[in-house]
Design goal:
alpha/beta, eight-stranded parallel sheet, about 20% strand, globular, binds D-xylitol-5-phosphate, binds zinc ion
């Protein structure tokens, strides 16, 4: 039997880690005026990941100018200490790593109690099944498709099975969780990633190292059509 081809347009979240910080205002304006859906903001502490990026003060300044959803990805130890501060800085989605918490369920409910959407990220080595029991508390499941810490790395193909498994778990639970893929997303693999079940694509290097970032965002957006 012939099936209708579904239109699975994904949300696009440019990662500002790859933006040119010497012209950050212009980069934010480019995203504002593009077909991007969210701003993806990577916070790194040099402990959970081997890199240090930026924190709440930069995010708060960016928020003054940005006109789209702020998707804040915390790659820091003890993220539960800073939930209120990231809320104040303008986070709409606040994502913590599964690998970073003894009481992830509590952290997710605290994020939501502060009025944000709760995100949970898993590193490549973490099986999706580890989060199955708390999936109802997860608004956004961020499946890392690289080892976190740096932009411009190569997408790990093991991610495809994880996306399909995440989709099964979410569907079986009847949860409304969005699946976000972060790391090594390109114009070449976007169609397959969306086909496996991704709802949100993060893209840093692919967008900001391209000759025409707004056009690249548009092409990523069209990948799911
Ligand atoms: C890496 C970050 C990513 C990074 C993605 O730890 O979580 O958001 O910016 O960059 P690309 O798209 O270049 O792999
Ligand atoms: Zn990220």
């Amino acid at each position: 039997m012939l099936r209708h081809k579904h239109c699975n347009m994904a949300l696009i979240a440019p990662s500002m880690l790859s933006a040119d910080f010497m012209k950050l205002g212009a980069e934010i304006e480019m995203v504002n005026n593009s077909e991007a859906d969210w701003f993806h903001l990577d916070v790194m502490d040099g402990r959970f990941v081997p890199n240090i990026s930026y924190g709440m003060s930069i995010i708060a300044q960016m928020k003054k100018m940005a006109r789209k959803t702020f998707d804040v990805h915390l790659m820091i130890q003890e993220p539960e200490k800073y939930l209120q501060e990231f809320k104040n800085a303008g986070a709409d989605y606040l994502t913590v790593h599964y690998e970073n918490g003894y009481h992830i369920h509590r952290t997710l409910t605290s994020i939501k109690a502060l009025g944000m959407k709760a995100g949970l990220a898993i590193n490549p080595h973490t099986p999706v099944d580890m989060v199955a029991d708390i999936i109802h508390e997860v608004d956004l499941l961020l499946v890392m498709s690289i080892n976190p810490g740096f932009g411009g790395q190569k997408f790990l193909p093991l991610t495809y099975n994880k996306i399909r498994r995440a989709k099964e778990i979410i569907t079986q639970a009847g949860a409304g969780t969005l699946i976000e893929i972060d790391g090594g997303v390109t114009l070449d693999n976007a169609v397959d990633i969306i086909g496996a079940g991704a709802d949100v694509l993060v893209a840093g290097n692919t967008v900001f190292a391209s000759a025409d970032p707004a056009e690249t965002i548009k092409r990523l957006k069209q990948a799911g059509k």
